[in-house]
Amino acid sequence: RGVVVLLDLHGAPGGQNGKEHSGCAGRAEWHRYSIDNSLAVLRRLMDEVGEHPALWGVELLNEPGDLSSAPREDEMRPLLIEYYEAAYS
Question: Structure pTM?
Fold first, then answer.
């Protein structure tokens, strides 16, 4: 099959975990704006490369949540479930 690619939404708008690799070190502001913008990014990616034969898969969000920064994982969970359900549909 050759080389395949796994796309990774590594840093989401608003920061999904408050770590440096999320693009928003020191804060995680995952809320409605973040969900809407992340879904828009995924839609654009799929419009551009969704049917490419080398596309193996898409990681919808890298390492969401972090117990050491707000919002805490328990607080983020309902939003993440909503995000994942929308992203898979």
Answer: 0.80
Please tell me the distance from the alpha carbon of residue 74 to that of residue 81, in angstroms, as a whole number.
11
Supply 51's token pair. 């049917």
Give the CA angle between residues 21, 62, 18 to the nearest 5°: 45
Per-residue pLDDT of the chain (89 residues; tens, 9 = 90+): 799 999 998 888 877 777 777 777 777 777 788 889 999 999 999 999 999 999 999 999 888 876 455 556 677 788 888 999 999 98
**Beta carbons of 11 and 23 less than 8 angstroms apart:** yes
Backbone phi, psi, residue 39, to 5°: -65, -40
82 within 8 A of 36, measured Cβ to Cβ: no
How far apart are alpha carbons 9 and 38 in whole angstroms? 8
